[in-house]
Amino acid sequence: MDRTDHHILNELSQNSRITMKELGEKVHLTGQAASDRVAKLEENGVIEGYSVNVNNAKMGYPVHVFLHIIIHTAHKPYLSFIETQQPYIMNNYRISGDGCYLLECKFPSHEYVDTFLKSLQEHANYKLSIVINK
Amino acid sequence: MDRTDHHILNELSQNSRITMKELGEKVHLTGQAASDRVAKLEENGVIEGYSVNVNNAKMGYPVHVFLHIIIHTAHKPYLSFIETQQPYIMNNYRISGDGCYLLECKFPSHEYVDTFLKSLQEHANYKLSIVINK
DNA sequence: CGACTTTACTTGAAAAATGTAAGGAAGGGG
DNA sequence: CCCCTTCCTTACATTTTTCAAGTAAAGTCG
């Protein structure tokens, strides 16, 4: 994990579909050498995968929210519930504090948020934060 | 944005470095057709970019936290401060509520969190949530 | 010191993927 | 019916990747 590896990770974080040849040029290596280093970063588990950044608004999910969840009773009903809400759930983080989660979601409109919260209410207490900007 | 486009985005979200030929096979198209569709998704702004998933723990940042920020006075000191904290900041979301942000950070250890919070204290009030699991 | 191994890189050729161009089939509208 | 557009395919030239040697520097150990 030297400077060049950091440079490589930085380039890949900006565009992971870059060719190894181009990546090599950016970090002053041949395509081979760059490719070898990337392979090693993958083997070591430093690189876990490659993904795409999708514009959620254009996909029909313009509303982005975080929900601070507090559950005093069993967690299972909550966890089962969010599994049924697949398209809306982005991340469910277990956080410090008893029975606490931070739930990141996307919705087509505020009406959908409302509907979701009505169902969520049956399994957990929550505090809603709507994302205005990044 | 038909079923095939959704299928393409799903495949790319799992592995954006897949070849167009392979992607085509997965969605029952030729490599060209897949490539054309991806190009169109990029033009339309549905695809905003391609990135890499890095294991933060292996990069020396095993501690992952969210900070709920509330600022009653000017925001600028806070915003300037977090710009100086580059390596630790993952995301700074502007959220609903006056003077509120949700700040996502990574740290090498709890000591670093402590040091960071001591400085943050000078610009804003916060509530700390440490991520245990995803 | 000197022989051996390892690591990181380069080069060149073969194999694979991509980009380009031309063309065909399906659907819509005048 | 004809024309146009969209979406896809095929074929081929170009580019990239992969594979196989090979070099050079650095570390190991008798």
TrEMBL record, chains A, B:
Residues 1-62 form the HTH asnC-type domain. Pfam families: AsnC_trans_reg, HTH_24. GO terms for cellular component: cytosol. The keyword Membrane does not apply. Keywords: DNA-binding, Transcription, Transcription regulation. Gene3D superfamilies: 3.30.70.920, Winged helix-like DNA-binding domain superfamily/Winged helix DNA-binding domain. GO terms for molecular function: sequence-specific DNA binding. GO terms for biological process: response to amino acid. It comes from the Bacteria. The keyword DNA-binding applies. Signal peptide: none annotated. PANTHER family: HTH-TYPE TRANSCRIPTIONAL REGULATOR LRPB, LEUCINE-RESPONSIVE REGULATORY PROTEIN. This is Lrp/AsnC family transcriptional regulator, leucine-responsive regulatory protein.
